[in-house]
Amino acid sequence: MAIGELQAQPGMLVLARESRGLTQTEVATAMIKSSPGGSTPVSQGYVSRAESGRLVVSGERLELYAAALGYPPELLCLDPQVNGIGVGLVHHRKKASLSTSALRRVHAQLALARLQLDGLTSAVALPEVSRSFFRVPLNDLTTPKDAARRVRKEWGMVPGPVSDMVGVLENAGALVVTTDLDSDLLDAVSQWDQDRQPLLLANTRAPGDRRRFSIAHELGHLVMHPEPGAGSTQEKQADAFAAEFLMPASDIREAFSSGVSLAGLAELKRIWGTSMGALLRRAQSLNAISEWQYRNLVIEMSALGYRTAEPVEVPPEQPQRIPALVRTLLTDHQMPLEDAAACAHLLPEDFQRLYIDGVDSSSFSDIRR
Questions:
Q1: What values do phi and psi take at 362, rounded to 5?
Q2: Which pLDDT score is estimated for 274?
Q3: pLDDT tens digits, residue range 213-266?
Q4: Does residue 171 belong to any structural domain of this protein?
Q5: Is this structure's pTM higher than 0.90?
Q6: 358 falls in which pLDDT band (50, 70, 90)?
Q7: Count of structural domains, the chain
Q8: Strands 186-191, 91-94: pairing kind
Q9: Reduced to 3 states, what is the DSSP secondary structure of residue 220?
Q10: Residue numbers of the domain that contains 353
């Protein structure tokens, strides 16, 4: 369809703006700057009316809107509800100080990531994987620990440490994307409506050990929480799930049998891929140390600065499914980068940043631009 025949969808205007973390006033200002000589008057009221559907955005105004938001005009003309990318029930591992606007931005980024991946997978099929996700309803007889044990058993996982948390989710059918979520206050966000593959975004700002725990935490949400509930309760349940999933009581209890020390926690971190803090909490929950010992070690870790930067680095895990899909498009199918970006409803520079930068450069040595 020619650009002159396109009309923006109000819901997508809101979603696109929130994904950029912009206010309506900032969008209006950006539209003025994008116009020839900055001569086109645009007000916050105009943006408000466009987002509420009280006026039609098309033609030159659509192009200015798209330039201000940094998306192709065609994206702004998609209906989020028709395309199945409404925010819906979203889970996230965040700190309480994260603002509502920042959270809305991440939720919008998750929704648009779903649209991007749908566009890419429609261009070339992902390798078939089993759809192994299932729900484990919690009740008086089924705890988060029970849920974690059941998932490990159903997925045929061997006892002991999880060698690749991202790989576990991808092998079970999830789509995992690592990206900068523009905040240090949120580690991961996820969504699963059961009709489609679970989708999880993991923040690249988080160190490798925290990222692994956050991904396991999100897995707990996806498995245990099909409906909204008390936020603090669900967060504690997801943490309990993650602790049991990454550090099964039956496997790790022996590691604490000879005592718990900072040196011992650092060594266990290498083995289990979880933070010293998480290991210390696990030792306490398994009654391997007393409350007094736990508090003393917490104080010692704080004095050494370990609450913000622990010793021993856990290499960040990287997804394989999405990079393989992009590699197939760009190298095997020899699709120009601009065309691949269009499939994902992105401008080429955004596509490069989101799906190519940070991936092994040799994988994309033959990209045609």
A1: -65, -20
A2: 98
A3: 999 999 999 999 998 776 789 999 999 999 999 999 999 999 999 899 999 999
A4: no
A5: yes
A6: low
A7: 2
A8: antiparallel
A9: helix
A10: 321-364
Which of 242, 185, 222 lies closest to 88, judged by CA? 222
- Dihedrals φ, ψ of 178, to 5°? -100, 130
pLDDT at position 362 over 50: no
- Residue 114 near residue 180 (C-beta atoms within 8 A): no
Strands (DSSP E) contained in the chain are 91-94, 175-179, 186-191, 199-203
Q: What distance in Å separates the CA atoms of residue 162 and residue 367, rounded to the nearest whole number?
A: 34
Point out the domain boundary residue: 83, 106, 140. Answer: 83
Give the pLDDT confidence of 3-39 residue by residue, as tens digits.
668 999 999 999 999 999 999 999 999 999 999 988 8
> What is the spatial distance between Cα 350 and Cα 363, in angstroms, rounded to a whole number?
18
Give a yes or no: residue 332 inside a domain. Answer: yes
Three-state SS at 57: coil
Q: What is the CATH number of the domain that holds 40?
A: 1.10.260.40
Burial of 320: CB neighbours in 10 Å, binned 0-12, 13-18, 19+ = middle
Close Cβ partners of 26 (under 8 Å, ≥ 6 residues apart): none
Q: Please enumerate in sequence order all residues whose Cβ is within 8 A of that of 171, keeping only pairs 6 or more positions apart, or say none.
A: 129, 130, 132, 155
Q: How far apart are CA 29 and CA 42, in angstroms?
A: 7
DSSP-derived secondary structure for 116-133? HHHHHHHHSPPPP-----
Q: Is the pLDDT of residue 87 over 60?
A: no
How much of the chain exceeds pLDDT 70, in percent?
92
* Structure tokens belonging to residue 198: 């679970």
Contact criterion met (CB below 8 Å) for 57 and 50:
yes
- Model confidence over 182-203: pLDDT tens digits? 889 999 999 998 778 999 999 9
How does DSSP classify residue 92?
E
Domain membership of residue 207 (yes or no) is no
Decide: 170 and 321 in contact? Cβ < 8 Å: yes
Is 46 part of a structural domain of the chain?
A: yes
In 3D space, the residue among 62, 80, 65, 71 whose CA is nearest the CA of residue 1 turns out to be 62
Average pLDDT over residues 113-118: 94
Q: Give the span between the Cα atoms of 269 and 209, in whole angstroms.
A: 8
Last residue of a domain, one of 48, 83, 118: 83
The distance of Cα 164 from the centroid of its chain, to the nearest Å, equals 17
